[in-house]
Design a protein that fits this description.
elongated; six-stranded antiparallel barrel; Thrombin, subunit H; 2 domains; mainly beta
C-alpha cells in the first residue's frame, strides 16, 4: 500500500470536521458573477474559511478555486471579521478524497516551526498598531516585543500559521492566547535596535 493510500484511509476514518490551516491564495466567484482574489485560511472536508474584503450574505452560493484542491462550491454559513465561512457541497467520494488531501497537506507542513521566544522582551512606548490581513485593517495592542516576535492583544485571532503585517512588519501567527495571539517576525530585528522607542 502506498503512503498516500494509507493517509487517505486514515483521513476517511478520522472526523471530516478536522480543520487544517492553509494560508493559500485562491479565486472566489460570488453570486454577482464577479471573481475576486481571496485567501483560503482554514479548511475541513465540510467547511472552508475564506479571507475576502467583500462579504456575501449568509446562504449565498460561492465557488472558490484553489490550485491544489481545484473547484470548491458551497454556501456561506457564517460571516467573520475578515471574510466568511462556507459549507462545502460535493459528492461523498469527492469529500473523502478532499479529507485525504487535507491530511496529506497537514502532515507535510512543517510542524511548530516557531516555538516560544527565547530572546529578551521589551514593552514599547507606542503599543497601539495596525494589523493588516488581506484587505482588512484591525487596531491591536502590542504587549511586548522581542527581536523575533511579539505578543499581541486583539479581539480577533487570525488562524495559526497565517501571514499578517503588524505596523510595517510582516509576521506569522504562531499561537493563540486568552487575550490575542503571538506572532513571529519574518525578518528578525537586530538586537541593538530593540528598545522601548522602536515601532513595528
Amino acid at each position: 500500500m502506498s503512503t498516500y493510500t494509507q493517509l487517505e484511509n486514515d483521513a476517511v476514518s478520522n472526523s471530516a470536521s478536522s480543520r487544517v490551516r492553509l494560508d493559500m491564495p485562491g479565486r472566489c466567484l460570488l453570486e454577482s458573477k464577479y471573481e475576486h482574489d481571496c485567501m483560503a485560511a482554514e479548511m475541513s472536508a465540510e467547511q472552508l474559511a475564506v479571507v475576502l474584503p467583500t462579504r456575501p450574505p449568509i446562504g449565498a452560493p460561492v465557488v472558490v478555486y484553489i490550485d491544489i484542491f481545484g473547484r470548491l462550491a458551497g454556501n456561506v454559513s457564517k460571516l467573520t471579521p475578515f471574510g466568511f465561512e462556507m459549507t462545502l457541497r460535493m459528492p461523498q467520494a469527492k469529500r473523502e478524497k478532499l479529507a485525504a488531501q487535507l491530511e496529506w497537506h497537514a502532515r507535510r507542513a512543517e510542524p511548530d516551526r516557531f516555538d516560544k521566544r527565547q530572546n529578551e522582551r521589551i514593552v514599547p512606548l507606542t503599543q497601539i498598531a495596525v494589523m493588516r490581513l488581506g484587505g482588512f485593517e484591525h487596531i491591536v495592542k502590542i504587549n511586548d516585543i522581542s527581536c523575533d516576535g511579539a505578543n499581541i492583544e486583539s479581539a480577533y485571532q487570525p488562524p495559526v500559521g497565517m501571514r499578517i503585517v503588524v505596523g510595517s512588519s510582516p509576521a506569522v501567527v504562531v499561537r493563540h492566547s486568552e487575550t490575542g495571539f503571538a506572532c513571529q517576525f519574518e525578518t528578525p530585528f537586530d538586537m541593538q535596535s530593540l528598545d522601548g522607542s522602536m515601532r513595528l
